[in-house]
Amino acid sequence: MLLQCEGVALAQRLAPFSAEVQRGELIHLLGPNGSGKSSLLACLAGLLPAEGAIRLAGIPLALWTGPALARTRAWLAQQQQPAGSMPVWHYLSLHQAGKEALNEEALITLCQIFQLVDKLARPVNQLSGGEWQRVRLAAVLFQVAQPQGRLLLLDEPLTGLDLAQQAAFDGYLAACVSKGLTAIVSGHDINHSLHHAHRVWLMKNGALVQQGSVDEVLQPERLSEVFAVPFRRLCVEDHQILTTFL
Fold first, then answer.
1. Secretion signal: which residues (predicted)?
2. pTM of the full structure
3. What are the domain boundaries of the chain?
4. Is the dihedral of CA 75, 81, 83, 86 positive or negative?
5. CA-to-CA distance for 13 and 155, rounded, in angstroms?
């Protein structure tokens, strides 16, 4: 068991939450704006002082040192301002936790995947919004590419990415998960979750409404209740899609 949560709560933001997460799982966190997704991810990252118990690799999260936690889990906030005027390559290299020599091969591979090779000397505060998002994604993926990397927590990672960049992200993340990385990812694209997630956590008003497999959770009736808009599930050329209707 990689992650265990028992009665995790945050006053006025999160109702008590319990779950278990295995290695090599891709979990999507869905719910309306203000449902508590970002707060939950921040608690799991050890960045908010939640009530209850969170264990990472069997060890209470509170007992992890900062350096050890940085080598084991990476967290992408929903929003983050560029870190001054440092070059992209410098910013990315800071995300190798530990004192080992920089793994340039892994970092260059990520730069190629996210089309950043021609931007490595550019100051991060001179990037477009979409470019900065790709740099941030490459950074946290590089962080968990280290030998101790186990858990990736991503808050709306697809923001600002075009379709080709989303496909590149999905492909790389799927490959990492197949090798044992665990990822918990928040978002708003229900059809993306329908086709990529292993399991779904569905939230509303700070509470976990349901957790389970994609087929168990992403049912039109349940989604209609949570999002307050009618849903239906269609099959178009053997391709399942969820859509709203009035």
1. none
2. 0.96
3. 3-206
4. positive
5. 16
106 close to 45: Cβ distance less than 8 angstroms: no
Question: In the structure, how many helices (H) and strands (E) does the chain have?
Answer: 9, 12
| Span 27-81, pLDDT tens digits | 999 999 999 999 999 999 999 999 999 999 999 999 999 999 999 999 999 989 9
Coil/strand/helix, residue 204: strand
Name the binding residues: 31-38
CB neighbours of residue 203 within 10 Å: 25
Backbone angles phi, psi at 18, to 5 degrees: -135, 140
- Domain 3-206 in CATH: superfamily? P-loop containing nucleotide triphosphate hydrolases (3.40.50.300)
Task: Name the binding residues for ATP.
Answer: 31-38
* Rounded distance between C-alpha atoms, residue 106 and residue 124, angstroms: 20
Range 212-236 burial, b when 16+ CB lie within 10 A, else e: eebeebbbbeebeebbeeebeeeee
Contacts of 216 (CB under 8 A, 6+ apart): 210
